[in-house]
Specification:
heterotrimer, A mainly alpha (about 100), B mainly alpha (about 475), C mainly alpha (about 500), A: about 100 residues, mainly alpha, Helix Hairpins, 3 helices, B: about 475 residues, 2 strands
């Protein structure tokens, strides 16, 4: 029997992996994908909890997270294009005009 | 959602719909001044409606409160948006930035901040936080031709998105532990239950604390602050430094005041964060030679001091924190408005070499800057002193003598760097060049900020009385 | 029965604070018109002095605890009140401040750069000083304490000598660290008292009843002491003063030595000693020893200076050592002497600073090696220099003598050894002052100079001081009269 704990374990592992990716990857787009993965692990947690607790709130939260993730992706990609146009690169090592 | 809910939301609706209308109008009319005027009027209308219209229901859709505390911050953030538009007016005209976009984003941000300060539900907290954060991502990089601004925007975006992830996961853990997303409810259930779930809830609060730490730049999550402040245009930095941080602190205070001592298990951690933040800000600022970076570190120190007030978790502490937020917003906004008002074709005066001797070229505005810096330093007769006095008194009352000492130490150090700037301004330097004379809008903001600093410093009783009435 | 007794008291003390403040604002607004600023500043200083003189003449002889008392609720949320209270000691200090400020304004007449701002800061400083001497609520006191600090910082850092920036920062940080310690102590005392009585207050008179444990009292007293001792300055903490006095512009040094230094001692008398009697009792012997060390150390250093302004700076520290010694004796006569000495020292050393500034203006130097023989070149100036130098070393019949003799007499009754040692120190003072006179006005002229003698404006500055120096030396009674009651009350309420 797959219990809520299994779902949550998967979500936790996903979250940890994506956090690790954010910290180590150098390409801004890959970092961004890791962040999306983070949010999706949150979604997984909420959906499993929502069904486990018989409480609709969790599912509603998922919709908001999705909306936020989409908005963030739109803004983020636009920003990356602006950055690329100025610097010809999206490597975070090149985010160096300002002291990091 | 009934009519009374909508009426209770009136200020937010005015801000959001006004923003949308201006965004649409901006697509057709490229003339910036009418759009700006529209934006300022909308913001002022939002503030007026929050002050004058009595909400028919205390809570909106179970997500946001419409009580006095929420209204108070709605007024503050609406006024902040108006001030942000005023200081940004010359900037968007000269840099040819779409006025419709700029105005609407500032108004959206204000709506988001107002919602955040009134959140009573974790979903509301999350949406509100994201609303203004998204607006700020764009605002920071609004000058597309400036590589520095794009870099600052990207940096803020990456870290902000990580913070969002942590926030969402923290909320998920609290949901797991308590089964509820309504704030007081979730806290009650957390306290009632024991065992495994309790630990999860604690972990959730810890993760939310990390996210909050990113947003209000608590050490060790503060490293982005100077970079982003330097890269962002001064009018936006003014909003970012004041509104985005103040709204988060306001939400924390509101949340803790509503739901009792949540943090009893986290006290030591928060204590450490506050101490570290105050010292990191003070020491970080010492080595700076760029005014915007210096103000960034100064804001880090102030966030540490604010956290002391929040940590107390007494009504005294909450009142002090709220007062401090207002004072910090007014002072910091004024300081960035001075920078914005001096900006001309060469950009903004930032490095100390550019500021040297400027006191003789622009005596009035540099005098205002000195006043604001002294208020940030906490000199008596300015608002900053009363704010620090209130917070330190609350800390002492709650027995945090160690934090009080660290706060005083940070104050001493910060006096040193504020004074360095002050001396720099009045150092005789024949080479000092003249900067822009500033527009009427900018001078208005400066006049309001500096008189508010003096009035709040000499007669803080007015505001304290109000705050004590509205605290939930 | 006075017909006006039932009317609300006229806020004379607020007037003393507000007149200079308004003058400062007006000067700032009229910064462009140099002559207007000078006139305005002088008018302000004169008006303030007029009020102070009126208070001295008409309210100076009362026998109540407070000659004047103003009390307005200021920040009810924290129980902070706007309380001003004047006893005999405060009255004398206020009178001294107003008097010296006239000279300071006249001395600043020649300032060329940013005249409006200079006078504005000078008047703001006066306002702050008046506040310090009158405030009877701790937050109000702290407020004025800092308000007096800021203008001095700017006066040094913008109009000072070669080393002005470093000196200004040093001055500011020394005094600031002290005053922040005081702030911590104020908040702590406020909290302890509030927890005991349930009514939060910061009025000194109400805080007197606070029950403190020995440890609490020691720490709080140390906090206040940090602020006052640095300002006084007691010996290990005095190094900022010589630099600040040397680098400050002439009018700034005048205010610094004549008035600002007194705030530290005044703070001890008015705030620290009454609030913490037990800790004071433990501290007095240390204070006495440190005061003696300061007296000798500063006298010794003064003797070896070549820069006459620096010499005067050390002589100030030495004199204030004697003042502190009088306080440490905790005896009526010694205290009255100390307070009188504060006033007379303000006048004599202040006048000497004025004269040094005038000599510097005329010759371009302050080094004793390059000066000398001024008597032949500027007889009136030299005569006044001699008069004030003699007054400063304590020649009988001139101002400082009265104060010094009272201090020594009073101290002798309590601690004979201290008094004898201090007497030696006074002899030392004679040595360095005579060396100063010798080096500046006697001897061969080091350079062929044609020096203009005193102008009308300079006579106006110095003559009132000269008259006062003689008057105070011959007949100090009118100035001692208001002190009796106040000092007796303080001493009686003091040590357990």
């Amino acid at each position: 029997m797959i219990s809520v704990y299994h779902y949550m374990s998967v979500a936790a592992i996903l979250f940890a992996m994506s956090t690790y990716g954010v910290l180590t990857r150098r390409n801004a787009i890959v970092i961004f994908m890791c962040i999306e993965l983070m949010l999706n692990s949150v979604n997984l947690t909420f959906i499993s909890l929502s069904s486990h607790l018989q409480n609709i709130d969790g599912q509603i939260f998922v919709f908001f997270v999705m909306a936020v993730a989409a908005a963030e992706a739109a803004v983020g990609l636009a920003l990356m294009i602006a950055f690329y146009r100025n610097r010809e690169s999206i490597d975070v090592d090149n985010i160096n005009m300002l002291k990091w | 959602m009934s009519l009374s809910d909508l009426l209770a939301m009136l200020p937010i609706l005015i801000l959001a719909f006004g923003a949308t209308a201006i965004l649409m109008a901006g697509a057709w009319y490229r003339e910036p001044l009418p759009l700006l005027a529209g934006g300022i009027v909308t913001a002022l209308l939002g503030a007026l409606s929050a002050g004058l219209v009595t909400p028919p229901v205390p809570e909106i859709a179970g997500l946001f409160s419409a009580g006095g505390y929420a209204r108070f911050y709605t007024i503050l953030w609406s006024l902040l948006a108006a001030a942000g538009l005023m200081t940004g007016s010359r900037y968007i005209i000269e840099k040819r930035i779409g006025a419709g976009e700029y105005v609407s984003l500032v108004l959206y941000a204000a709506a988001g901040m107002a919602l955040l300060s009134s959140a009573t539900h974790l979903v509301g907290l999350f949406i509100a936080l994201e609303t203004f954060t998204l607006a700020f991502y764009i605002l920071i990089a609004s000058n597309r031709n400036c590589a520095l601004a794009a870099e600052a925007g990207l940096k803020y975006l990456l870290l902000g998105a990580v913070a969002t992830g942590f926030m969402a996961f923290g909320i998920a853990l609290i949901y797991a532990a308590s089964g509820s997303l309504v704030l007081p409810d979730a806290v009650m259930r957390l306290k009632a239950e024991t065992g495994e779930l309790q630990a999860w809830g604690l972990l959730g609060w810890g993760m939310i604390l990390i996210a909050v730490g990113f947003k209000i730049s608590l050490a060790p999550f503060h490293l982005w602050t100077p970079d982003v402040y330097q890269g962002a245009p001064a009018p936006v930095t003014g909003l970012l430094a004041t509104g985005s941080k103040g709204a988060v602190v306001a939400a924390l205070v509101g949340l803790l005041a509503m739901s009792g001592p949540v943090w009893n298990d986290l006290t030591d951690l928060v204590w450490l964060l506050a101490a570290l933040t105050m010292l990191a800000g003070a020491f970080g600022a010492l080595g700076q030679s760029n005014l915007k970076r210096l103000l960034a570190y100064s804001s880090v120190t102030h966030m540490g001091t604010l956290l002391v007030g929040v940590l107390c978790q007494t009504s005294e502490g909450f009142a002090a924190t709220t007062f401090y937020v207002v004072v910090y917003v007014v002072t910091s906004l004024g300081a960035f408005a001075v920078i914005a008002s001096l900006a001309d074709g060469r950009g903004e005066p930032m490095t100390f070499d550019q500021w040297r001797g400027l006191g003789y070229r622009h005596p009035v505005r540099c005098g205002v800057l000195v006043l604001l810096l002294l208020s940030l330093a906490g000199l008596p007769a300015t608002a900053g002193f009363m704010a620090k006095f209130a917070v330190f008194h609350a800390a002492l009352q709650s027995g945090y003598i160690g934090l009080l000492m660290i706060g005083i130490l940070a104050s001493v150090i910060s006096f040193a760097f504020y004074l360095r700037v002050t001396m720099l301004l009045f150092q005789p330097d024949e080479k000092a060049s003249s900067w822009h004379q500033g527009s009427v809008f900018e001078h208005t903001v400066l006049a309001v900020c500096s008189s508010a600093v003096l009035v709040l410093g000499l007669f803080p009783g007015l505001l304290f009385g109000l705050i004590r009435q509205i605290l939930p | 029965m006075n017909a006006f007794a039932n009317l609300p008291q006229f806020p004379w003390m607020s007037l003393l604070i507000m007149i200079p403040l308004c003058g400062a604002l007006l000067c700032l607004l009229h910064g462009k018109r140099t002559n207007d600023c000078r006139g305005l500043a002088l008018a302000t200083a004169l008006a303030t002095f007029g009020v102070a003189l009126y208070l001295f003449v008409c309210h100076g002889q009362g026998s109540e605890r407070w000659l004047l008392y103003e009390d307005v609720n200021w920040i009810p949320a924290y129980g902070i009140r706007y309380v001003l209270a004047m006893d005999g000691i405060a009255l004398l200090m206020v009178l001294l401040t107003a008097f010296m400020q006239i000279s300071a304004v006249l001395l600043a007449w020649r300032v060329e750069r940013h005249v409006g701002s200079f006078f504005a800061l000078l008047l703001l400083l006066e306002s702050g000083l008046m506040g310090i001497f009158l405030a009877y609520d701790l937050v109000l006191f702290y407020l004025f304490w800092e308000v007096a600090l800021i203008p001095m910082f700017f006066l040094i850092s913008v109009w000072g000598g070669e080393q002005r920036r470093r000196t200004a920062l040093k001055f500011f940080l020394y005094t600031l660290i002290g005053s922040l310690c005081m702030l911590v102590a104020i908040i702590a005392l406020y909290q302890i008292n509030g927890a005991q009585t349930g009514a939060y207050t910061l009025v000194i008179g109400d805080l007197l009843k606070t029950q403190l444990t020995a440890a609490q009292e020691g720490w709080l007293f140390a906090g206040f002491l940090a602020a006052f001792v640095v300002k006084s300055p007691l010996v290990p903490f005095h190094t900022w003063l010589t630099d600040a006095l040397t680098e400050a512009p002439a009018a700034g040094s005048l205010d610094l030595t004549g008035l600002l230094l007194k705030t530290g001692i005044y703070g001890l008398i008015r705030v620290a000693f009454p609030l913490f009697p037990n800790a004071t009792a433990d501290f007095l012997p240390i204070l006495g020893i440190l005061a003696l060390v300061g007296l000798f150390h500063a006298a010794w250093s003064a003797y070896h200076q070549d820069d006459i302004k620096r010499l005067l700076a050390y002589s100030s520290i030495s004199h204030l050592g004697l003042v502190l010694l009088g306080l440490a004796a905790w005896q009526l006569t010694a205290w009255e002497g100390s307070i009188l000495l504060m006033v007379t020292h303000g006048i004599t050393t202040g006048a000497l600073f004025v004269l040094v500034a005038l000599i510097r203006e005329r010759t371009g130097t302050r080094s004793m090696q390059e000066l000398g023989g001024l008597w032949g070149q500027a007889p009136c100036l030299s005569a006044l220099f001699l008069l004030f130098s003699l007054a400063s070393l304590g020649l009988p019949g001139l101002a400082n003598f009265a104060g010094e003799i009272l201090v020594l007499l009073g101290t002798f009754q309590e601690h004979p050894v201290w008094a004898v040692v201090a007497l030696l120190g006074v002899v030392f003072a004679a040595a360095y002052m005579l060396r100063l006179v010798q080096g500046v006005i006697w001897g061969p002229a080091k350079a062929e100079r044609t020096l203009p003698d005193l102008t009308m404006r300079e006579w106006l500055m110095l003559l009132p001081m000269a008259i006062l120096v003689v008057w105070l030396g011959l007949y100090p009674a009118p100035f001692l009269a208001p002190l009796h009651g106040a000092v007796a009350t303080l001493l009686a309420g003091g040590l357990p």
